[in-house]
Amino acid sequence: MNITKENFGELNGDTVTAYRLINDHGMQVSCIDYGCTITEINVPDQTGNIENVVLGFDTVEEYKNHSPFFGCIVGRVAGRIGQAEFDLDGKNYKLLKNDGDNHLHGGLHGFDKVIWDATVEETADEVKLIFTHVSPDGDEGYPGNVNLTVTYSLNNNNTFQISYEATTDQKTLLNLTNHSYFNLSGNLKTDILDHELTLKSDQFVELSDALIPTGHLLDVEATAFDFRLGRKIKDGVTSEHPQNKLVGGGYDHPLLLSANHQEEISLIDFSNGRKLVIETDEPAVVLYTSNMMGDNFNIRGVQARKYLGVCLETQHHPDAINHPEFPTIVLAPGEVYQTKTSYSFSVLKGE
């Protein structure tokens, strides 16, 4: 087990540092302190060929100019907040509108645009990278000083875990996630339409035309949202379901998890045998199949395009503050925000 550290570049005169977490079996997770951004996850396929399975860039400038939240921590609130405003204890808070009339992923300068402080811990069985940041009262319109810790850890079982912890001195909102785009083909050899996704989920959240939750929960039964027995991602692209068509063909929806820490999410590329299992204590996962990705930039020599990656964003429901029927995302003084998600990589056994 090992962690390496090197200069990744500069942003507004500040140094951006890259870290590489390495286990004893060749798995490597690379990230930078700008946005806690995961830049690479290198894992083997069935033949032992080690390749990168997430979308990312090699320069700070590319992240600044082109990144659709590749690999970063988003917050204070992941997803959209309708009309970019909310009421909390009788006070109205107005946020920046950075997605039409709505607020998306914490605003224009959310946690993905911050250079976090980082410390390293190494043991024989695990390496950890501990990111910390203080979000000041009024940051992007949110109340309260919030102390945040995000820990990235890698063990010798090829499991990468993200742990989140936070406290506040005023009532505020918090709903964090990691926004990695996965592509198990390795080094973006193909898109993700033939990846098979399995989800322990019986319902998903209906979206309005503005992609804001309506508050209605829809059953997955007999729809392209039924991943309980596994299905190809391309089923959502060809689906005539109004919700698939609404988001441009594919998915950009919160699916409610019916189990936690029970292999509730799995993604497989049968062409090379790579398998990813995600376990979390969050109530939902936002499935986004990069339907809206533009083609005006390159990703390590590959032209960006729709369906090049799939995001599996474990979190609470988007716009929860405006839907009292959803689990709360309010954090109060004296409470500790804690959640974790693990990503375990393996290969399918041969015949």
Automatic annotation (TrEMBL):
PROSITE patterns found in the cross-reference section: ALDOSE_1_EPIMERASE
Q: Name one GO biological process term.
A: glucose metabolic process
Q: Which UniProt keywords apply?
A: Carbohydrate metabolism, Isomerase
Q: Which domain of life is it from?
A: Bacteria
What this protein catalyses is: alpha-D-glucose = beta-D-glucose
Which SUPFAM superfamilies does the annotation name? Answer: Galactose mutarotase-like (SSF74650)
Residues given in the record as beta-D-galactose binding sites: H179, S180, Y181, D252
Q: In which pathway does it act?
A: Carbohydrate metabolism; hexose metabolism
One GO MF term on file is: carbohydrate binding
Family matches, as CDD domains: galactose_mutarotase_like
**Catalytic class of the enzyme:** isomerase
Keyword Plastid on entry: no
- Tell me the active site: H179 (proton donor), E313 (proton acceptor)
> What's its EC?
5.1.3.3
One GO CC term on file: cytoplasm
Return the PANTHER family for the record: ALDOSE-1-EPIMERASE, GALACTOSE MUTAROTASE
What's the family? Belongs to the aldose epimerase family.
Protein name per its UniProtKB record: Aldose 1-epimerase
